Amino acid sequence: MREQTSPVIIVTATPPQPLELSTRQPGEQIPFATMVAPPQPEGLIVPTLDPARAYTPEALPESYVVQAGDTLSGIAQRFGTTVDQLIAMNQIPDASLLAVGQLISLPSVTGTISPAVKIIPDSELVRSPATASFDIEGYVASLPGYLTGYQDQVDEVEVSGGAVVRRVANDFSVNPRLLLALLEYRAGWLFDPEPGAPSLVYPMGYVQLGYEGLYKQLSWAANQLNVGYYGWRNRDELWFTFPDGIQVTYGTGLNAGTAAVQYFLSRNQTYDGWLADVAPTGFYSTYLGMFGDPFAYTVDPLLPPDLTQPEMHFPWAQGETWYYTGGPHGAFAAGSAWAAVDFAPPGDTETAGCFVSPEWARAVADGVVVRSENGFVILDLDMDGNETTGWTVVYLHLATEGRVPAGTLVRAGDPVGHPSCEGGVSYATHLHIGRRYNGEWIPAHCHHCAPGVPNVPFVLSGWTIQGWEGQEYQGFMIRGEDYRQAEQGRDNPLNVLTW
Predict the structure, then answer these.
(1) 418-429: per-residue pLDDT in tens?
(2) What distance in Å separates the CA atoms of residue 450 and residue 446, rounded to the nearest whole number?
C-alpha cells in the first residue's frame, strides 16, 4: 500500500507579539499586549482570516438510513434520543432487528444548538505537526506563575510542571498549547504565582477523590477532550448533556476541535457559565492572548482524504502463535479513538496476571524508534524522527528490560520489547498496539466517521480488524473466509493467531 507523505502546514493568521507579563483571575479576559507568546512555528504561510469564524448552523437530519453494524441504541445515542422513542416513531417490532438501508425517522431536536463560533482547528486539539517545535518546558519556565515551580509525583518520581504537561500531551496525543491554555483559563497557574486555594488541588475543576494534583487533573482533561473530539469525528455523536441534564446539540457547521473544547468546557459547569466560556470573550480570548490565533497553526489537511495505511505485519515472529484478546478500544484511556487492539504472547493456559514475557514484540514495519519510555515504544514509519508527523505505531506495556532505545532504526520483524503490564493500566501481560497519523489516533474500525474523515482499515498480515458499534474491546478479524474473535485467555480457538 502507498504511504502518505506529510502535508504542508498552512496557517491563517499571525499571532500577536505581546510585550509584558501580568497576573489575572481564572476566566478573566487577557489583553493581547500583556501576554508572552512562544515563537511562531517555522515555515508557515500567513494569509488573514476573520477571527470570529462564525458559521450558519444547518438543520439536523429528519431521518437516517441504517448502515452495516448499526444498532438502535447507537442511532439513539448519535441523534440525542432514546430507543423507546425511535421504536414508537418507526413502529419497530424488534429493536434487535434492523435492515441495512432501512429508513429511520428521527425526532425533532430538543434543547439548544451550540454557539456558531469555531474556537480551534482540529490540529490544535491533537499532538499535530504544528506542535513539533513548541518547547513546553521552556515556555513554562519563562512565565511567573505557580506552574513554573510546581513539582508532582508521577510513577513515584518527582517531575516538574512542564514535564507533566509534556507527558500528558504525549501519552494522550493532545496539543500541549491547548492543555496550558485550559490550565490558565481554569486555574490561573501560568501567570499567577499564588492562585486560589481550591485550584491548587483540583486545577482543572474535576473534584474527585484520587484525582488530586496536576498529572491526574491534566490526564482527566486530556481524556475529556478526546471524548469530545473522537466522539464527534469517529462516532458522529451530535449532542452532549450537562451534569444537570440540559442537552445541547452540536451545530453541524462546527469542526471536531471546536466540538471537543465545547464538550470539555461543559464538564463541571452550568449551562449559563458554559455559554460565557465558549463565547469569543471566554476561553478563546485566553488562548489568543497566550499563543495568538489558534488558526495560525492549522494543518490542512490533517488527514488526507485518500489516506491509506502502509503495509504492516503482526507484531510477533512468523511461526509463533499469539492470541487476540482485545478488540478495538481506547488508544490511551477510553476517551480516545478506539485505535488500539490487544494481543497476548504465548504461555500456559493457566498463565495469568502480570509478568515479563520472554517473547518478543516486533516491529510491524520499517521505522525509527522516536520514544521509548514508561511502557511505550513509538515507531515512526516515515523515519523523520518526529512522532507528530505521518504514520506512527504505538506499542504499550513493554517492559523496561530489553526495550529498544529511542533513535534505533528497525526493520519489520525486529524485536522492540517484551510484553508486560508496564505503562498505562493493565492487569495481565499483553501487547497494546495502535496507530496515529499526524498525531491523530486512527480508529481500528470506524462505524460512523464524520463527513470528510477517511475510514482507514487496520490491516495486519492481511487480517482486517473490525469491531461492533458501541462495544469497546469486542470485535473480530477477517482474512478471506478466515475469522478470529477477540476473547480473553489462551484456551479459546476463536482467538488463536499464527502467521
Answers:
(1) 999 999 889 999
(2) 9
Beta bridge partners of 436: 392, 441
User: Phi first, then psi: what are they for 191, rounded to 5°?
Assistant: -120, -10
pLDDT for residue 430 is more than 80: yes
Tell whether the torsion through CA atoms of 478, 482, 484 and 485 is positive or negative: positive
The three cell numbers of residue 247 are 442537552
Quickly list DSSP for 415-482.
EEE-BBS-SSS-SS-BEEEEEEETTEEPPSS-SSPPTT------EETTEEEEEETTEEEEEEEEETTE
Percent helix, strand and coil across the chain, each to the nearest 5: 25, 20, 55
One-letter amino acid at 201 equals V
Helix (H, G, I), strand (E, B) or coil at 367: strand
CA–CA separation, 400 vs 419, rounded Å? 10
Instruction: Give CA–CA dist 490/349, Å, rounded.
Output: 5
What is the pTM (predicted TM-score) of this model? 0.82
Residue identified by cell 528497525 is 410
Q: What is the pLDDT of residues 207-247, one digit of tens each?
A: 999 999 999 999 999 999 999 999 988 866 788 888 888 88
Strand order in the sheet with 459-460: 459-460, 463-468, 471-479, 482-485
Q: Is 400 helix (H, G, I), strand (E, B) or coil?
A: coil
- Measured CA to CA, the distance from residue 300 to residue 180 in angstroms comes to 23
C-alpha to C-alpha distances, 20 to 34, 142, 215, 286, 349, nearest whole angstrom: 5, 11, 29, 15, 64
Give the separation between CA 148 and CA 190, rounded to whole angstroms: 7
Instruction: Tell which wins on pLDDT, 329 or 11.
Output: 329
